[in-house]
Design a protein that fits this description.
This protein has helices spanning about 30, 45-50, 55-85, 110-140, 145-160, 160-190, 210-215, 225-250, 250-260, 290-315, 320-335, 340-370, 375-380, 380-390, 400-410. It contains 15 helices and no strands. This is Piezo TM25-28 domain-containing protein.
Length: about 425
Amino acid sequence: MLYQLTSIDPSTFSSNCTLPRENETKVDLEELKTSVLYSGPVDPAEWVGLRKSYPLLLYLRNNLLMLAILAFEVTIYRHQEYYRCRNNLTAPVTRTIFHDITRAHLDDGLVNCVKYFINYFFYKFGLETCFLLSVNVIGQRMDFYAMIHAFWLIAVLYRRRRKAIAEIWPKYCCFLACIITFQYFLCIGIPPAPCKDYPWRSGNANFNSNIIKWLYFPDFIVRPNPVFLVYDFMLLLCASLQRQTFEDENKAAVRIMAGDNVEICMNLEAASFSQHNPVPDFIHCRSYLDMYKVIIFSYLFWFVLTIIFITGTTRISIFCMGYLVACFYFLLFGGDLLLKPIRSILRYWDWLIAYNVFVITMKNILSIGACGYIESLIQNSCWLIQAFSLACTVKGYRIRKWLISLCNLLQTT
């Protein structure tokens, strides 16, 4: 707010950078004019986070919103603490909404089932949620750091067993925290006031704007997209909650309330599994909850095969052919697959998940060609684009669409 005073005039201490000569850079003149250095006077205060803004409320709304949320949080926690002290109550073991709902009430009807999952959804499906968010980060970014996320996803899934994943999970959380911090510094970059450009914009560098964007380098022309950090933060938030869940699984009080997350025995026969299953039989549909269970456990297998088939036929590529082969291979067994030993069933699904993660990783690696070197590939290796169905799915890259249309036309002829 002090910076908004009329006595502070940014034009008195702003810098005016001069355009480099032709032999000093390989960037086009039109592209240079969009740079922060040469598009106008450079205010050094903007690098710190200060700028002139009218009206002022729009400039401060995020700070005021954060202050209001923090004040609301403190009010709630203080009120709860005061209420418990006044009534001689103790804090519940688990921070849940419905304190009287436990694992024993999960199969007592649709209402109790909904209440249970409101309390303990992340306790039961937090790990799967983290995997989904990890794939979301990879799909939204499709750059160098998304490739690192893909390798970490492979490393975590390779452990397979829940206990083994819990051992490596603190390292995964540490990685997410470090990489977000590092990327934040990349988004800040160096101060533009000295009028010094980055070395990858010099005349000796062989970087274009698309490669710089894919590598997530700091730049004054193609600035790193800070929205990507929001996806990384959501993944870090859920990963931190999942780390707490792994710790809660070892507490007896939590297991009594929420149930355990012990994996099923691999040596059981699926056909005789009902003898070892403590859950009531839902096949005869005595309630709406039983109807939902029948739909999920009886038809989810075919729904997954439908999704695999759609995935394999949406695009024509080598990767999609693998999905079609997997779909028809599962259809060959049909419902008999679910009657095989559990170890055999999980082995098939492990291979399917492994292939899916492999395709995600390879598409991320090949995105450097689809987004960074697409024009060179169109001129020299048009068949590669068709074979792997290369396409840049992230906005912001400078790609001439008519070249891709020309490649498709040449392939058809």
